[in-house]
Amino acid sequence: MAELYLFGAVVTSWCQPQGSDVLYVRPDVIFDGVKPISGGVPHCFPRFGPSADMQQHGFARNCTWKVVDSHADINPDYPEPAVLLQLQDNDYTRSMWNYSFKAVYEVTLRSDRLKVELRVLNTGGKEFDFTTALHSYFGVADASSPAVNVKGLKGKSYLDKVPDANQPVEKVETHDVISFGKGLVDSVYLDTEAETLLDVGTGCSVSVENTRGFSDTVVWNPHETLKPEGVWKEFVCVESAQVSKPVVLGPGDEWLGEVNISVFDH
After folding, report:
1. Do residues 190 and 159 lie in contact, with contact meaning Cβ atoms separated by under 8 Å?
2. 230-261 per-position pLDDT tens digit
3. CA 45, CA 86: separation in Å to the nearest integer?
4. For residue 240, which phi and psi values (nearest 5 degrees)?
5. In the beta sheet, which residues pair with residue 137?
6. pLDDT tens digits, residue range 187-214?
7. Reading across the β-sheet that carries 254-265, which strands appear in turn?
8. How far apart are the first and last CA of the chain?
9. Distance between CA atoms of residues 122 and 101, nearest Å
10. Contact call for residues 65 and 8 (beta carbons, < 8 A)
11. What SS3 state is found at 128?
12. Whole-angstrom Cα distance, residue 33 to residue 62?
């Protein structure tokens, strides 16, 4: 079972058959159709991070998307319900980013995974570039414990945004696992392998597979910088991103990113 909000096109819940939710929504979220939803799988588009010309992480998470299609396989043995959402340029988006575009987001609930696809099409007459990410929040047992960690990034170059988010420091990851008990973690890993694993501390791991389009992986946990106190222990973000190399689309061109999220026992 999954839950999806049209405001921001955010998947806020994806439950396993036994009822446990893989995703996490912060307790301070206000579902008022104004403030972006902090939790689930929010969009960062057409900018990731701080920007001089628009709000942090862009406008896609501040817009109401529309449903353009939905379907499910009629064979009950292979049900794969899916919904297709769309966002097009409008007066609000052009006030910040004066380009014509169409973003199409498909969410498919498969028996063993959550599959999401983001397609961006340049529908105008001039070239544009963008960065993007799926800012996925995953529930964990206790992020302060070393049992909660991220694997698969050793040896990768990354931008450490902790000292200064606007001027991150490039480093190389030397650890086999990334844990979260010592302080804020805000890192953009560049040109990563397709799969990154998050051990949630319950004997299960979440696999985040950047199947196509997304070349980078962001790992974030706010530690004690986030209020209310202790909330940071309840989640870790492992984000599929295209940040290091902005996507450039000429008139009529399109870009496609696909992510598959699955859960398995150790």
Report:
1. yes
2. 999 999 999 999 999 999 999 999 999 999 99
3. 13
4. -85, 125
5. 237
6. 999 999 999 999 999 999 999 999 999 9
7. 66-71, 82-88, 101-109, 114-122, 254-265, 204-212, 195-200, 148-151, 177-178
8. 23
9. 5
10. yes
11. strand
12. 8
